[in-house]
Design a protein that fits this description.
4-stranded antiparallel beta sheet, Multidrug efflux transporter AcrB transmembrane fold, elongated, about 5% strand, cell membrane, MMPL_dom, 5-stranded antiparallel beta sheet, alpha+beta
Length: about 750
């Protein structure tokens, strides 16, 4: 501990001696961060919840083709309308990464060699529908970034095609949804960032009184956020719905670090000349804030290691980068600016404090200065802490009882696992998709994929197994149909499966290549299983289990393996697993932070004491969620570990100050508790409230999952502050008393 204090004191001396050089380093890092930020990509939708999986990778390589659907409503048989459809068809057929385009124009051209100007001729081929779909299918293996330009080209093609008045054209599909959602994520990230900074300004202006340059922490935190953008760009961490929540969180956490640095520096200036104040301040507050920052990083780390969901992993990785870099920015930006300001102030007033006269001045004004510094809030916090610490058993028993009620309530909380519930319901791409489903009678979300691998996939025995699987699966609840290579071959062979493999191959030769590629490609086969529409999360899980059981019960031939896969089949179980593992995630968070504190303090009491209030909060937050009807989302499932990591900052700082005060001669445990709460209680209250302001920006997010998380985090930070100031003092007094008794007993036995 002493070595770490010396390290931070040394850093403080270097900043004090070379503030301009430190600021130049900070500026150079900003320019470097811009290069990384330019490399950030976005991943949206179910793809953000699908981890690496060999079966899924094989399916993606062979069969997973994104698509765009151009929904055309109006008199389709009217020649001008069909000519426009034909122009879209031909235009998109020439685009890179487009495999096929299908539309009614294909049928009419096949019949007449062109699009006739006779409505009667057109109707004789396609009838007189009032809507149709132009289906644009991509090549396999495209990323979302590769697909988005195709969506833009499709929109441009529909504008260029000049559909007649009265015809409605809607471009929808996976690429359309991904493109609009990606744009909204970028806009939301910028808006939340700006809103959080604005709220921080308000919070610091009204709450961080009594210090000079009280808005300066905002500058440091903003620089830390820029560093974070650069870091995730260089590390290849993409932006997603979840990661866009990180930046308001970072502003709230980063403000904590800078406020603590700022507050302690102001305190040391009361008793030391500027040359000594900064090393003294950073040596005193640096280690506990550093440990608190590592605790927050470990809280996010527990989320990282406890899930396989990519979007949650990206959230955790971005958060870890963020807490590290906002801490660094507090040292590289805040402290040198404060140093320069103090120098400029002293130069402008003509004062040159010396080591001899600074303490004397401090001694004559210390009493008044202390009163001014801590203010009424600090005095009240100190007295309250002393009162609560005087009755440790009663206070902790009440806190534990409430926590136990919360743990019991945790089992009855609702969950939010449907990815469509994560996004704004008024997003144009989503409303277009819903419109397409209602008009066209479906969409890709109603089908699931089965990848078939192995040998002899075109053998009659394998095809007969596919028919058996279809018969068994369609008897199960929620399964509405199966489309397989056997279905395709029967359609082109008079309803029969050929008796020999050579006969099967002859039938396949009569089928158009683009149609055949939907079922056979790269030595693999593809089966589609159709589900009921608009299934609940539990129904989707039941459907997947029914399909797996049908595969097993139908007994694939030797050498043949069938697995249900695809984004829809993997994303939902992954999200549910993340939600169900929230207790494991929380437990890992507690364990990680406990090990950190034990390694740092090498004292069991000091490792346990900061965690006890956080355990209370984990239970209390369930009551808060239950009363406000906040469901557990995959992001909310990580909150327990986050609570431990974030809240540990407050408890560590209070505890560290408690032991500093207790080392002074003639200071009792209650005196130390009162002084600690008085001197740092106001600082952590200010930093906690500014954190609340930062987190509250999430409440205004257009994404329901983020706004719900915002309500949750705001409440949890309040609870964390209450626990730190109300339950930590009695915890310290009780554990310290027990520790001293144990030490005394051991000493008496020696």
């Amino acid at each position: 501990m002493d070595k770490l204090r010396e390290v931070f004191s040394t850093v403080g001396r270097q900043v004090q001696q070379r503030p301009v050089a430190v600021l130049l380093l900070a500026v150079l890092l900003i320019f470097g961060a811009f290069g990384g930020a330019a490399q950030i990509t976005s991943v949206t939708g179910d793809a953000a919840f699908v981890a690496d999986n060999p079966t899924f990778d094989a399916f993606t390589e062979s069969f997973d083709r994104g698509s765009i659907a151009v929904l055309v409503r109006g008199d389709i048989s009217e020649p001008q309308t069909l000519h426009a459809i034909d122009r879209v068809d031909r235009q998109m057929s020439t685009k890179a990464n487009v495999q096929t385009v299908t539309s009614p124009a294909d049928q009419v051209r096949q019949e007449y060699g062109r699009i006739p100007d006779s409505e009667a001729k057109i109707r004789s081929v396609i009838g007189s529908p009032d809507y149709t779909v132009v289906q644009i299918v991509f090549d396999t293996g495209l990323s979302q970034q590769d697909e988005r330009p195709i969506y833009t080209q499709a929109v441009e093609a529909t504008d260029w095609a000049e559909f007649p008045a009265g015809t409605t054209v809607t471009v929808t599909g996976s690429a359309a949804f991904s493109a609009q959602l990606s744009t909204l994520i970028q806009q939301s990230t910028q808006q939340l960032l700006g809103l959080a900074i604005g709220l921080m300004v308000v919070a610091l202006f009204f709450l961080f009184r009594g210090v000079r340059l009280r808005l300066l922490p905002i500058v440091a935190v903003f620089v830390g956020v820029i560093y974070t953008f650069g870091a995730i760009g260089y590390a290849g961490v993409p932006n997603s719905t979840m990661t866009s929540a990180v930046f308001p969180i970072l502003i709230g956490l980063g403000i904590d670090y800078s406020v603590q640095f700022h507050e302690r520096y102001e305190e040391e200036l009361e008793n030391h000349p500027p040359r000594e104040a900064l090393p003294q301040a950073l040596g005193g507050i640096g280690p506990p804030v550093f440990v608190a920052m590592l605790a927050a990083a470990l809280g996010f780390g527990a989320t990282w290691v406890s899930t396989s969901s990519p979007s949650i992993i990206w959230f955790a990785q971005t958060s870890i980068f963020g807490v590290l870099l906002t801490f660094v920015a507090g040292i590289l930006v805040l402290l040198p600016l404060l140093t320069l300001w103090v120098r400029r102030r002293d130069d402008s007033t003509g004062e040159t404090p010396t080591e001899d006269d600074a303490p004397t001045t401090a001694e004559t004004t210390q009493s008044q200065g202390d009163s001014d510094r801590v203010g009424l809030v600090g005095e009240l916090l100190g007295r309250s802490a002393r009162t609560l610490a005087s009755h440790p058993v009663l206070v902790l028993s009440i806190a534990l009882l409430i926590a136990l009620v919360g743990f019991q309530a945790g089992g009855s909380l609702d969950t939010l696992a449907d990815t469509e519930g994560f996004i704004p319901q008024d997003l144009p791409a989503y409303t277009d998709l819903q419109q397409f489903r209602s008009v066209a009678g479906g969409g890709s979300s109603t089908s699931y994929d089965v990848l078939v691998t192995g040998t002899n996939l075109k053998h009659p025995t394998t095809l007969q197994w596919m028919l058996d699987f279809e018969h068994i699966a369609t008897q199960a609840p929620l399964v509405q149909g199966v489309d397989s290579p056997a279905t395709l071959i029967k359609q082109h062979n008079g309803g029969q499966i050929p008796q020999t493999e050579s006969g099967v191959k002859r039938v396949l030769e009569t089928i158009p290549e683009r149609q055949k590629l939907q079922y056979y490609n790269d030595g693999r086969a593809h089966i589609m299983v159709y589900s009921a529409r608009d299934m609940t999360t539990q129904q989707a899980l039941s459907f997947l289990e029914n399909t797996r059981e049908s595969i097993a019960y139908s007994s694939p031939p030797p050498g043949v393996t069938a697995d249900i896969t695809g984004t829809a089949a993997i994303a939902t179980p992954s999200i549910v697993e993340q939600i169900n593992s929230r207790n494991v995630t929380t437990g890992l968070g507690v364990l990680f932070v406990f090990v950190l504190l034990l390694l740092y303090y090498r004292n069991l009491v000091k490792a346990v004491a900061p965690l006890i209030p956080m355990v209370f909060v984990i239970g209390w937050q369930n009551i808060y969620m239950y009363l406000l009807n906040i469901p557990v989302s995959p992001l909310g499932a990580s909150l327990g570990a986050m609570t431990v990591g974030i809240g540990a900052e407050y408890t560590i700082i209070v505890m560290d100050r408690y032991y500093q005060e207790k080392q002074q001669a003639g200071v009792s445990r209650l005196d130390a508790v009162q002084t600690a709460a008085t001197r740092v209680g106001k600082a952590i209250s200010v930093s906690g409230m500014t954190t609340v302001f930062g987190f509250s920006a999430l409440v205004l997010s257009p994404f329901p999952i983020l706004s719900g998380f915002g309500f949750l985090t705001v409440g949890v930070v309040f609870l964390t502050l209450i626990a730190s100031l109300a339950t930590l003092p009695p915890t310290l007094v009780l554990l310290d008393s027990i520790s001293e008794r144990v030490t005394a007993i051991r000493s008496s036995r020696v």
